[in-house]
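Trying the structure run again after the queue cleared.
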Amino acid sequence: MNKKTLRDIFQDALGAVDPRRAVARVLAHGNGRLAVGRGYQLDAFDRIVVVGAGKATAGMAAAAEEALGDRIREGLIIVPYGQTAGLKIIRQREASHPVPDEAGVEATGRLLDLVQEAGEGTLVICLLSGGGSALLVQPPPGITLQEKQRVTELLLRAGASIAETNTVRKHLSLIKGGRLARTAFPATVLTLILSDVIGNPIDVIASGPTAPDRSTYRDASAVIDKYRLKQQLPPAVNAWIERGTKEQEAETPKSGDSCFSRTENIIVAGIELALSAAKARSQQLGLAAELVTSELRGEAREAAHLLAGRALDIRKALAAGGHYCILSGGETTVTVQGEGTGGRNQELALAFALDVEGVPGITLLSAGTDGIDGPTRAAGAIVDGDTAKKARAAGMDPAAYLERNDSYSFFEQLDRLTAAGSHLVTGPTGTNVMDLQIVCIEKEE
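Done. Tokens:
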């Protein structure tokens, strides 16, 4: 299968979850009224403030400015370095992702100050997308930024899921886990969310700053115990969590808290929309298409085995000249054992390449919809039955690269030696709805 075909399908999927379009749909208004959710009569508010954070938030903010214009009194969003947009009213601050930095702390402090000033006549529009957890950073008293960084690094390296990671983050923060809504009360808060989490749980996406938090300090402690991190965590972090489990520190606000009486959270786009667009594009290209799952999770290499097994079964059943496409989305994890460089999509692709080695007619694209796969410049990779064979012919051992979690180096070296074009490098896409896998299967006549 031509790799361009998979790229075309991927680009259509990205277009469907463009944050600018998603927010524009929601904020379209007639007669000064937003029809979204409960409905909002704009003239009922004496001021509108826009805040937010995430990888897709610049595009979301641009749509807000286009829809509401000078109705917006002021605003502040926090985005990853290099991912700003041409905004006129809403201020932008850049900070680090996925590990927070001092710029994120300072920007979050200013955002909280802005929200703190909101009164009962204020409409706060909060724009959230994946990456918000790292960008919205305000450690509690007694915990330093460096200690918070250490926690994030340990959780990422241990292979904790995003829900587990954010459970800990929420309990080491003055803004996450509903605390932004508490700060904004009694203002009205309308939160628009581009989901990057399986199942779209609003208390997990960007660590749920405006959502009732279902997790507790005890849950955070359980995550730390599960991954045996207690001995590696800073003493101040362990002490804070322990005090929380003993109810000596205030819990995150829960469902029923009065601060949520004037708050509404709405998902404007997610992986389901991307997969629907990918399926439609596949069919336009003459491929029968099947959605395997929108909730792919677990270890990346295990997910690869699942998809490769399904692809091999389909190929066996295909008639000569047949074409088929299977699609999946979600977010896998990698438990890092080696010292290599990579990301979950590149690891999945490398494991898949080994599973289909020597089998013609099976091609996979696995990539992050944000254009970033782990701490690398790649979004993911495209592989087929020849990928591992080409590597071996070039003197490379693909299994050894996989064993040391060095998928990025594998694809860099393979492309350099063979011009295979396996690495998928898009740069930041401006959106973020988890990862997408496209597998095209064909059998020659």
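The domain at 272-442 is CATH 3.40.1480.10 (glycerate kinase, domain 1). Worth checking whether this holds up in the mutant runs.
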